[in-house]
Amino acid sequence: MNRYIKLGYEGIELELPVHALYLYRNEEQLLDNLIPLIREGIERSEKCIFIGKECYANKLREKFKRKITMPEETITPQNFLTYLKNEYERSKKKYQGMRIFVEGGTEYLNYEEMLDDFNTQPDLKIFLLCHYEIEKINSAEMLEVLKNHPYVFVENLLKPNCFYSRVKHHIWLDPLTGIFNRRYFENQLSKELQRASRYEHPLSILFIDIDQFKKVNDEFGHQVGDRALTDLAQILERNLRSVDVVARYGGDEFIILLPETKKMDAKRTAYRIMNAIRTFDFFKKELKVKELNVSIGVASFPEDAGGTYDLIKKADVALYKAKEQGGNEIVVFM
């Protein structure tokens, strides 16, 4: 069973489930890009469903005969999610997965968030491609469309001028700091652990807690505290690679995913972050406030744990030991 799909000129490998947006200009461009993906899905024993304009449906039906499914009932934004769930349940025993190609429009924007919530369930073997004709969307609508799709492709899915981006979902963002939230982090950690196990690669996480942060809120108010949390989030992002994931785990806790990173390399990253925090002036207008210090716990795969919550727990244990030692410390789980 193949849990990955490759898109783009360099074969970007995405782990299922995948919810992607494809912006196309005309019929020829759409069919040129969809046909190879449908053919690949059929070869991999995945159920392929097309929902869109009748003229496109007829050409795909002519090419693939009964190997591609076209819904008998009329699919609308209101019944699409129910149809999708029912089809997936019916196809699980016969097929290895499912590929859905659906013609999007502004009327579909309200369902996208619910759809993404469904599509991020673990072990869901679905590739969902929403294709929108560029000329039919104005600039304001385009922003809404982009916000609701985690993967975006413009004009080409499989050719050299393919444009790819990872768009942060607002349902996965922390509203205060603008970085990812706990839900997104745990979802990504689960996927990265599967990939690390598959290829026998290392992976580490850093669990970060601000020392005595409650005193800042109590003495100077939550506005000062909120500003400090936002500044800290930006410091973390500036001191990480593009492949790393930083999230606000809750309150004054932050957590970082470091793919392809051994424990000692993760520890060096932790020291770099700690030094950046020590030298930053968080409270420019509050001269009586001491600068922030943090404690950091480090845990790694495969030596410490193999599961999402087990690995987080080990990093949390290391963080607790750092706090016990008085804070402003880095502790590696042993």
Any chance you could write out the topology, listing elements then pairs?
Layout: E1 4-7, E2 12-15, E3 18-24, H1 27-43, E4 46-51, H2 54-64, E5 68-69, H3 80-91, E6 97-103, H4 109-119, E7 126-133, H5 139-147, E8 151-154, E9 163-166, E10 180-181, H6 182-199, E11 203-210, H7 213-220, H8 222-238, E12 245-250, E13 253-259, H9 263-278, E14 294-301, H10 308-324, E15 330-332
Parallel strand pairs: 3-7, 3-8, 4-5, 4-6, 6-7, 10-12, 14-15
Antiparallel strand pairs: 1-2, 8-9, 11-13, 11-14, 12-13
Helix pairs in contact: 7-8
Outline the structure in words.
- This protein is an alpha/beta fold.
- The protein folds into two domains: 4-167, Rossmann fold (3-Layer(aba) Sandwich), CATH 3.40.50; 180-332, Alpha-Beta Plaits, CATH 3.30.70.270.
- Helices cover 41% and strands 24% of the residues.
- The chain is built from ten helices and 15 strands.
- The protein has helices at 27-43, 54-64, 80-91, 109-119, 139-147, 182-199, 213-220, 222-238, 263-278, 308-324, and strands spanning 4-7, 12-15, 18-24, 46-51, 68-69, 97-103, 126-133, 151-154, 163-166, 180-181, 203-210, 245-250, 253-259, 294-301, 330-332.
- It has a seven-stranded mixed beta sheet, covered by helices on one side.
- A hairpin with a 4-residue loop joins strand 1 (4-7) and strand 2 (12-15).
- Helix 7 packs across helix 8 (222-238).
- The longest helix has 18 residues, at 182-199.
- The protein is elongated.
- Pfam families: GGDEF (PF00990), MEDS (PF14417).
- One of its GO terms (biological process) is cell adhesion involved in single-species biofilm formation.
- GO terms for molecular function: diguanylate cyclase activity.
- This is Diguanylate cyclase.
- Residues 201-334 form the GGDEF domain.
